[in-house]
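FIELD: query
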Amino acid sequence: MDEAAIRDRLRTVDDPELGDDIVSLGLVNDIDVDGDHVAVDLALGAPYSPTESDIAADVRRVLTEVGLEPDLTASVPDRDDLTSEEQVLPNVKNVIAVASGKGGVGKSTVAVNLVAGLSQLGARVGLFDADVYGPNVPRMVAADEPPMATEDETLVPPEKYGVKLMSMAFLTGEDDPVIWRGPMVHKVITQLTEDVEWGYLDYLVVDLPPGTGDTQLTMLQTMPVTGAVIVTTPQGVALDDARKGLEMFAKHDTVVLGIAENMSTFVCPDCGGEHDIFGSGGGEGFAEEHDMPFLGSIPLDPAVREGGDGGKPTVLKEGDDTSDALRMLTENVANNTGIVHRQGVSQTHRSEAASPDR
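FIELD: result
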């Protein structure tokens, strides 16, 4: 088969989320045919996203069915004109911010379980604890080893559960208060991202402090954020503050990957009864009101607190509703990250196809 025939064959593979075939969407970057061997480069940008894994599996299937040996790669064309030296974090495919409008909604818990879940899927993952005023991620993953320094005065992050970690908690005393003003926050955020040997990552998750202050603005102005996850509880007060976070990301043209509702229904371990301690359905209603994806509800479960205090993320457990909910949230974040990339590629493809100069 020649390239044209293979391209026609690939038109039978649909993107279930964008609603068209991958050729029409411009998701086939390149095809190279050598006898029965065919190399196909696909515009897939969310490694280990269940949807993108299914698309790749469908491509392999339709090519194998006609006697070809497919070799698939994935790359999203860079729409910026910056060289690798000019880019911030050039070896990181996706930067995902986890934010909340207020404290106490379990934002760090969501961030920790998200990275552990992505690593469990097989992705190369880093977690940057950017909550400079209250860094507690190391405790939540039982990471006791501080980063190592290289001869070039860069930091090599420690790893736990397959996740590379960086936190201000590694660089201050355990009980030392952190009292900084805006310029100092800007400097430390820059250093803890650019001066760290992150290596090649599929996802770098950034756990932001609550609110809309200096740390959030610094990150949005200096880092190539793929998208944000907003964490809330079902109660109205938390939703009011989540709305402020939504507005902050909108002002900086940052895509919101979805709304995560934490501390939803509590199931009593003694009587089995369900109790909506913080209300019910607020996160899902908030997402629907603002036309945002809803990533899922995480039950109010003592096991989540125990996992955080004990340093073992609950998502790594098997066979209970809470760990299943956290895995579903992880998959939804990965899937929505893929949608962001594929929509961008498709829009560029169709714009170029419609241009009279082409």
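FIELD: remark
The domain at 95-324 is CATH 3.40.50.300 (Rossmann fold).
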